[in-house]
Amino acid sequence: TDFLPMASLRREAALDSDSGEDDLVPEGPSEGSEKDHQWKCDDVSELISVAAFKQTCCELHPQFSCGQQSTAARGMEPQAVRSLEKECDPSQVLPLGGLDSIQNLTVADLPKDSPLHSLKHRDAVKDFLEKRLPCPNALRTAQPLQRPAPDEELIPMPEVVLSVIVYHPTRKRRDQEYLVLGCQRLCELRDKILCHNDFFIDKDYSEHPDSFDRKTMELGRVPFPAHSAFFFINNTFYNDLRHALSKDTSRNIIDWTNTGNRLERSPRLDHFQTADMATTRFDELSLRLGYPYLYCHHGNCEHLLIFQDLRLLHPSESRSRADYPRLVFQHRGRKKKCNVCGIFSPTWATLADELATESPCFFCEDCFRKLHYRSDGSKACSFEAYPYHPGIPT
């Protein structure tokens, strides 16, 4: 079954309502269909069962079943291995205070007069950014590896790791890349994915701008997340129904395919199923590497989702479950500037603004107040004002 983006379904539904005719997806390839099916290339694998992949790897390489590599696999004698373990023991290179004296060190604990040029450059860049940007990039937060707590259970080995690429909803670029474990549920990845649409607030604060609490837009916090979302993988809609306000947004699409004679003209529309992402694990899926699947939230914000790699977790990698899904790539994007001063990051976006040359128009806090309000606090013109997160890249 070919990949069927939700946007194409909505486009067909719009054509049905406009022309009164069914303009359906052709059952087979047609002339000029290569441009519409560019994902059919050598980079796309066959359908792979994640659980079967894990079992096959353990059968072919028994050393992976315990998470360690045998001495025979290393090609070394056991005596040489013991000698290396003794010489390379961490206790031989630790300071007098032992491991406890350095495990909690941070960059802030380093001496201010350090001769390292990298630290001097870092401090200079940090000071510059703090002066120019009131808030750092909300979608580029650091994610240090978490040390497992003493009572925390480590990830049992062997375990599979999937590399997932999330694309921008409107631009043809990859936005984020995550490493997820096979034992994790789909909803855990859904909670990690950040989109600029998650930070948009649809309430007009032009009458009382001081009533908006900026703490709701703290770094790394999504003020108004979409409760309803789904993954579309291999003709199955994995819906997020954890919240009381969640809705099965895939039901509208399935109901649309069952109306009229669409199933007769395009039988592949009859294979859609639904499941709960909160109870589905990644190792229960069968995937095609390099094939574009779909993540949809906010009703019509659609991200292509591509599983790029599938492998076993290496013993040298973090085995703390808190580290996964782990962000390994984030597109930097471009920061907006105030449309008036062109220096500071915007904190307000206006619509239908009589004093603006475009809509929406973005303003920093100082320019917004001086341009749109009189000395007594009343509005100087007609406009709508919406809070804007200064750390959202575009």
Number of strands: 13
Strand fraction band? 15-25%
Walk across the major sheet and give the strand order: 6-5-4-8-9-2-3-10
Helical proportion? Answer: 10-25%
Q: If you compute it from the alpha carbons, what radius of gyration comes out, rounded to the nearest whole angstrom? A: 26 Å
Please provide the ordered H/E string of secondary-structure elements: HEHHHHEEHEEHHEEEEEEEHE
Principal-axes geometry comes out as flat
Largest sheet: 8 strands, mixed
Structural class: alpha+beta
Give start-end ranges of low-pLDDT stretches.
1-38, 66-74, 131-142
Helix count equals 9
| Distance, first to last CA | 34 Å
User: What is the multimeric organization of the chains shown?
Assistant: single chain
* Nearest-integer average pLDDT: 75
Description:
The protein has 394 residues and is α+β, with helices and mostly antiparallel strands. It is 21% helix and 17% strand. An eight-stranded mixed beta sheet has the order 6-5-4-8-9-2-3-10. β8 and β9 form a beta hairpin. The longest helix has 16 residues. The protein is flat and about 85 Å long.
Question: Could you provide a short overview of the structure?
Answer:
This protein has helices at 6-19, 50-60, 71-74, 78-87, 117-132, 186-192, 250-257, 262-265, 365-372, and strands at 48-49, 160-167, 174-181, 229-233, 236-239, 273-276, 286-287, 292-297, 301-312, 326-330, 348-351, 361-363, 384-387.
